[in-house]
Amino acid sequence: MSNGDKNSTDTILDGSELTHPEHRALFEHWMAHRRGDLVPLRSSFDPLAFHRSMPRMAIIERGGSADSPSFRYRLAGTEIVRRAGRDPTGMTFEELYEGTYLETANRTYREVMASGQAHFSHRIYPTGKDAGYLYYDRLILPYSSNGSEVDQFVLLIVVIEQDAPKQQAGSFSFFGRKRNA
Fold first, then answer.
1. What's 109's domain CATH number?
2. Secondary structure class of 107 (helix, strand, coil)
3. Which of 39, 14, 34 minimizes the C-alpha distance to 24?
4. Which of 10, 45, 118, 125 is the most buried (most CB within 10 A)?
5. Burial, 25: exposed, middle or buried (Cβ in 10 Å; 0-12, 13-18, 19+)?
6. Is residue 180 part of a domain?
7. For residues 60 and 156, is the Cβ–Cβ distance under 8 A?
8. pTM of the predicted model, to two decimals?
9. Taking a C-beta distance cutoff of 8 angstroms, is the pair 17, 10 a contact?
10. DSSP character string of 85-123
11. Three-point CA angle 59, 51, 159, nearest 5°
């Protein structure tokens, strides 16, 4: 599987593209709580209804202004933490990512914020210095805490593949296979 095969993105309009049952269930819940063209209220999301998915879910908050947003993990599920080798809870994208990965993350969340539409993508996340990776499918759903602007996102990942025995590096655990020269 090459990087080009796994870094695609789409805006989801009717959910027919979603093949995983957990993605479909979360999307259907989100659609049922939309308010016409407006995104659902964050208070309409009941985590208990998705308790089996919670280890693979995260809640992202928008800070800053609508013109210059910043994004921070409010909550990250236990499987996300375990597979990434670190807990992003409370951290901004700038504290977690760099380079093109940071640019892509910020652009994606700005686009979801502006469109108010669900976002689905096939992603690759580098998990360590030894070229380890995590392939996953990601659904991002925008929400509003105040009823008028997108300021929170619920995301659900479904892991496709992970390259990797776990390694310890400093205070972080990484998943990644050591490559022979």
1. 3.30.450.20
2. helix
3. 14
4. 118
5. middle
6. no
7. no
8. 0.81
9. yes
10. TS--TT-BHHHH--HHHHHHHHHHHHHHHHH--EEEEEE
11. 65
| Residue 16 is assigned to a structural domain of this protein | yes
In the numeric block, the tokens 């108010």 are attached to 116
Q: What is the pLDDT along the chain (181 residues), one digit of tens a residue?
A: 333 444 556 677 788 889 899 999 999 999 999 999 999 999 999 989 999 999 999 999 999 987 899 999 999 999 999 888 889 999 999 999 889 889 999 999 999 999 999 999 887 776 665 667 778 899 999 999 999 899 999 999 998 876 754 444 444 444 443 333 3
Q: 55 with 76: CB under 8 angstroms? A: no
Pairing of strands 8-12, 133-143: unpaired
For residues 153 and 13, what is the distance between their CA atoms, to the nearest angstrom?
17
What tokens does 95 get?
A: 């504290």
Q: Does 107 fall in a domain?
A: yes
The whole-angstrom separation of Cα 123 and Cα 80 is 14
Burial class from Cβ neighbours inside 10 Å (0-12, 13-18, 19+) for residue 27 reads buried
